[in-house]
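Hey team,

Filing this mostly as a record. A colleague (T.K.) asked me to run one chain through the structure pipeline before their review meeting, and I want the input and output archived in the tracker in case anyone asks later how it was produced. No errors, nothing strange. Just documentation.

Input sequence:
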Amino acid sequence: MTRNMIAFDLGASNGRAILGQFDGRRLEMRELHRFENNYVEMNGVFYWDTPYLYSQLKEGLLAFRRGGFGELDSFGIDTWGVDYGLLDQNGHLAGVPRSYRLGVQADVDAVTAKIPAEELYRRSGIDPSLTFNTLYQLCRRQREGDAALAAASKLLLTPDLLGYFLTGAVGTEYTIATTTQLYDPTARDWDWKTIGELGLPRHIFTEIQPSGTIRGRLRPELCQELGLNPAAFVAVGSHDTASSVAAIPGRGSFAFCSSGTWSLFGVETDRPVLELGADSGFSNEGTIQGGFRPLKNIIGLWIVQECRRDWLKEGRDLSWDDIVAEAVNAAPLRSIIDTDAQEFYAGGGMAGKVQDYCARTGQPVPETVGEIARCAYESLALKYRKALEGLERMKGEPIASLNIVGGGIQNKLLNQMAADATGRAVVTGPIEGAAMGNLLTQAMALGDIPDLAALRQVVRENVEVETYTPNHTPAWEQAYRKLESLMK
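Output structure:
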């Protein structure tokens, strides 16, 4: 029997509905629907257009029905981490869900004045310097006397919130819970101590469920509206990085990178690595098998995405391929930025921010599209090396290769730069890593795949990978030393 499954894979810039047809060995994937996703600024606050996202999920389901594929067995949703919606006592949205792009250092300072950063790290294993963490978002709203938080009956993280709208069932999936800085990886439950000390409302947190839990079915009203059967909703690895990592075909000692708006760079472990310390820059997020991913959140293609928005406003309609072509022709390793510097977190005027950073640090100022893009790509590749060396120190052993998955692998220039900067072979694929991990986790929940090892064997049988051989020159070594000096 061939299963029909839909993976809803939502990123911070776009979303997709991907049909997966699985016969127990072969997985055929096809895109049913694609849509834009952008945060909306209103009165100084960034929001997600959640009603629009919900309507786009319905469009994806309609595309399945119109395709005449038969009955839908299941669907799953994966998204970016940390963001959430609040429900009131009637199960309705209490306010518009906010975007993590609102976070500022003052939010971190207000919390660490009560609980030191090192203690927060020991409790959650999450980098306490990340201004966008759910913990800081909630504490800001609490300080502001936010009416939506005061009225809230439940908090649902973005994939659980969208799943609730489709099914009426509530719950919190494990991997998305681990992104919040409110999960205790030792007790494997919400961090009730921190929640209590900060005076956050206990009652809004719902039961944490393992990845692969079947949580409800498509609501009867939607079945009638869309002409579909009551398909099962599987709480997959609903943090998109968890689904991406599940679909990595690697063996042996490898690091992973899920490349997109963010580059999530890490390794898999059975237990959280809490001894790294608050200043390490590493976070312990969950895997679909119930383990952990010590990883570093690196600003990825966000900088170039925002530059492209600037250029579009100027009337330059550049495709991603156009931008890469311009970067190929620009002079190499001319200027380096620390892509994780605070000024690059917020959107707007990004090309100018790159130029200002280079001017302030005494480097040649990139002027053209190609110079700005090449600066961002090369700097990101060097950040990969920095993260890789941190992982090697943590593991106490060398890492032989880097496996990159996600939409970012379409940028072959960046893939080669990653190999050159790290001096390691880079293996790319699958491109739709999150969607593939999402679909195969559904198949595991339905009983068609026994475990993660079998899931990854299916990936290896269904994916063609590409390998990039490193050309690590002295110029790359000199650029890396420059990056290290900028990060001090």
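Quick notes for T.K.: The chain has a mean pLDDT of 95. The first strand starts at residue 3 and ends at 10.
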